[in-house]
Please model this.
Amino acid sequence: MYTNNFEKDFFWDEVKKARRIGISAHVRPDGDAISSCLAMYDYITDNYNKDGAKTVDIFSMDFSEKFLIMKNSDKFITNDDYKEPYDLFIVLDCGSIDRVYADEKIVNGAGEVFLFDHHVSNTGFAKYQVINSESASTTELIFDYFDEDKISKDCAIALYMGIIHDTGVFKHTNTTERTMVVAGKLLSIGKFNQEELIDGTFYAKSYKENQILGRALMESIMLANGKIIVSWLNRKIMDFYGVESKNLEGIIDQLRVTDGVEVAIFIYETADLEYKISMRSNGVVDVAKTAVFFGGGGHVKAAGCTMRGQLHDCINNLTLGICHQLEEHGVKID
Model:
């Protein structure tokens, strides 16, 4: 999927003219969401706001402390901090308006709205948008809109961080030759310690995060002749271990690598009878189709949604569509 209805120079002309600029990505932000926001913030403030005359705000809900390693990660504000309309609002790494963290009235209340995204399920909700599902991450996508000689070390780190988190440190099949070229350029520009960034933000886990990972694995069940693995956590268990949604990263990926599994599903309770669903596919199933059906979105191999109802009904409804796809590909399901 590729959509682009504006030129690079036009975008930066709008940035130059804007007095107030807002930036936001999707709710429950992952590495690419946080990193793309910070990269855009860094590039704008470094090159278009040297005198500090502009107001540049980046919106996000709470995120993992591991991303505090990036400069300006303390600059994020919440919807409660909103004061007055923006001349320009930039949405990053988000497939639909209802998934943007910043309130819809804040986004749509801006003079102009630009969208940069790489989700194949994107609904195309902005006036100006570039959507490229071939990009491994949104940070890879926005790299093409930055002049390389104007990218600071901190901006390069943020761009690189988004790539490593959305590619699983270059192991997922969304990693392309272009991805590696961009990553190499960022290493050359920033001259940073990539081992420290990768270990510190991708592999490192706190003790309670390791505990909840173990609990999620213990609670998992196998369905559809071992082709689907499902695990879930309710609020009582999360409160017992003292964890929040930001501490659950990596659980779905560990479920996915279970031998023989085609699809992994991880579910956690966000409110009474409300659940956040994450899905990962090993290739046969397009989990974005299932996510979109239930009002979510994502990529062919990684997608998610929010569901309401009884837990067992949510699991049954999710697996029904997944099993249908498996059977279409010749996988026998009893």
